[in-house]
Design a protein that fits this description.
The complex is a heterodimer. In chain A, 47% of the residues lie in helices and 13% in strands. Chain A is of the alpha+beta class. In chain A, the strands form four sheets. In chain A, strands 1-2-3 form a three-stranded antiparallel beta sheet, with no helix packed on it. Chain B is α/β, with parallel strands linked by helices. Chain B has a single domain, classed as Beta Polymerase, domain 2 (2-Layer Sandwich). Chain B contains three helices and seven strands, in the order αββαββββαβ. Chain B is elongated. The N and C termini of chain B lie far apart (53 Å). Classes of the chains: A alpha+beta, B alpha/beta.
Chain lengths: 415, 150
């Protein structure tokens, strides 16, 4: 029998980062995966060599639209490591607040799309509704719903207005309730269990060998979190814990992300409560020659920036390690031997860019007949959910629908 | 394991190969390693001492090329960067991707962007650059000129 290759990618207008997956399938089983990346290679490392250090922070903010404060935070950590700079306490707290708000919005984005892929559209809509208040808070604190431009070497670019703190805490309340609801929905829903447990399993050894990090690694029992292991910002000044589970399947990745959001809320609340008064920026003018390494635990894993400076205003070399660069190769292992219906959610579980499925192109078999296109693959994934629900004799999204009402939506912000 | 233990261990295992220790601060350690000992050192760090491979940074300076292999010990937040210095012409170094699988993609990236060859691995397909990018043009080298400036 002729082998079938299902191409997924590489372009779709919704994509934040195009990549191209080729699934080699035999019947329904995935035998092998090819990954091609580079479709969106913008040469940011090269560009950085032509920018001043102040501009570099803005440049790396454009590496990723979703974790747009992760790269700047790693970048300023690297510059401060290079110069041996200690920044004001207030700036440390503000950095953690922005970093954790970003983690919540990024995890919610992923959770919603994961629901969408398996046909849980109520979950999708509710999760994204709860993401809105987070963006409102970002807008109030930083002035922007995305690309916040808050980080700079020596501090933060703008102060947090103390009068906003009660409003921020109040706006977080419905989000907290919603996260609780999502956790309950995930842990009680028999269809989600049947659909996600034991699917796309990555073992501890797989993670250590591939160097993957973030929720992908922590769901497989690898207890690494840069926020705790190399404390920066205010992460060593507040109480929180690293979420680690053992099973390594897609279900555990969902659970890790939901629990991490709860920890993020705890961090934000403590930072707002303990926010010290004083300066928020050292107003650094120059950096010495030398090397610096800065890291940050982004929503998807470790962001690692290396700077080589000759003492001028521009870096000689700027190296960026993005989390997905190391996480994506885990898909080679995770998707092997699984069914095509599960491939959609497995490839999305790493959170490389969830819209992967939507840029699926047509696949034709030897006779020229179309086998799979993006809609067919999504349909396959959703049909499996429905059939699992029928087998179990339960209604789809039963736990969500049983709860009294949707999470509260937009906050009272007036434009 | 603190920095002193680590230095002792590596110095006793690689007395001649590792040199130029530089302790920038308690969490950042740099050293230079002879390219011939790179594979053994990478294996020692990754398999024996429990380090994680973060990433490698290739650098093009006036003296030529160098690659920094960043390994981290996550329990302590320590990052050890092994520095390999390579010549100006036809730079090449042993591949460590078979020992440290996490290094696979970054070796491909460095080859495409800097033209540093990794010995002992099959010539892979291109990872980042498009298929119509000309052979032998390496965009992150300092002597690279944008096509419209030639």
């Amino acid at each position: 029998m002729a082998k079938t290759i299902i191409p997924i990618g590489p372009y779709h207008p919704l994509q934040e980062e195009p990549e191209f997956f080729k699934l080699h399938v035999d019947g329904e089983r995935v035998e092998k995966l090819d990954i091609e990346i580079g479709y969106n290679h913008r040469g940011i490392e090269k560009l950085a060599e032509s920018k001043t250090f102040d501009q570099v922070v803005f440049l790396v903010e454009r590496v990723c639209g979703i974790c747009s404060t992760s790269h700047p935070l790693a970048s300023v950590n690297a510059m401060e490591d290079l110069g041996g700079i200690r920044i004001p306490e207030r700036a440390l707290y503000i950095r953690s607040i922005v970093g954790e708000l970003e983690r919540i919005h990024s995890h919610l984005l992923w959770l919603g799309l994961a629901g969408h892929f398996i046909g849980y559209n109520t979950l999708w809509m509710w999760v994204w509704k709860s993401r809105e208040p987070i963006l409102d808070i970002m807008e109030r604190i930083t002035g922007n719903r995305n690309n916040y431009a808050m980080m700079k070497a020596g501090g933060v670019r703008r102060d947090l207005n103390n009068d906003d703190i009660p409003w921020v805490l109040k706006t977080l309340e419905p989000v907290k309730a919603a996260i609780d609801l999502f956790l309950k929905a995930a842990s009680d829903d028999p269809v989600l269990h049947a659909r996600l447990k034991g699917v796309g399993v990555l073992t501890r050894e797989d993670i250590i060998n591939t160097g993957a990090l973030g929720p992908t690694a922590r769901a497989s029992g690898v207890d690494i979190d840069i926020r705790r292991d190399e404390p920066y910002a205010a992460y060593d000044r507040v109480e929180w814990k690293v979420i680690v589970t053992e099973n390594g399947d897609v279900f555990d990745k969902v659970v890790v992300r939901i629990l991490e959001m709860m920890e993020s809320v705890k961090i934000i609340e403590q930072c707002l409560r303990d926010l010290p008064a004083g300066e928020f920026d050292l107003k650094i003018k120059e950096l010495p020659p030398g090397e610096g390494i800065g890291r940050h635990e982004a929503p998807r894993g470790e962001v690692f920036h290396y700077i080589l400076s000759d003492g001028s205003t521009r870096p000689v070399r700027y190296k960026i390690r993005a989390p997905s660069f190391m996480n994506l190769p885990t898909n080679y292992i995770a998707v092997k031997g699984e069914t095509v219906a599960d491939a959609t959610i497995i490839l999305a579980a790493v959170d490389p860019c969830y819209c992967c499925t939507e840029r699926m192109a047509m696949a034709k078999d030897a006779s020229g007949e179309t086998i799979f296109d993006s809609e067919a693959l999504l349909r396959l994934s959703r049909e499996k959910t429905v059939s699992v629900a029928n087998e179990l004799g339960v209604e789809l999204e039963s736990t969500l629908k049983k709860s009294s009402r949707a999470p509260e939506g937009r906050s009272d912000i007036k434009c | 394991m603190d920095i002193k233990d680590l230095k002792d261990k590596l110095n006793s295992k690689f007395p001649k190969e590792i040199s130029n220790w530089e302790e920038k601060n308690p969490r950042r350690l740099y050293c230079r390693i002879n390219p011939a000992a790179l594979r053994a050192a990478a294996e020692e760090l990754f398999r024996v001492l429990g380090f994680r491979f973060n990433i490698a940074s290739a650098v093009n300076t006036l003296e030529g090329f160098q690659i920094l292999y960043h390994f981290s010990l996550d329990k302590t937040g320590l990052i050890l960067s092994l520095r390999v210095k390579l010549g100006k012409k036809n730079p090449e170094v042993d591949s460590i991707a078979d020992l440290v699988p996490a290094a696979d993609w970054i070796e491909r990236e460095i080859y495409e962007l800097f033209g540093i060859k990794f010995k002992g691995r099959p010539d892979p397909e291109r990872l980042l650059l498009s298929e119509d990018w000309p052979e032998g043009v390496f965009p992150l080298r300092k002597d690279f000129q944008a096509f419209d400036q030639k």
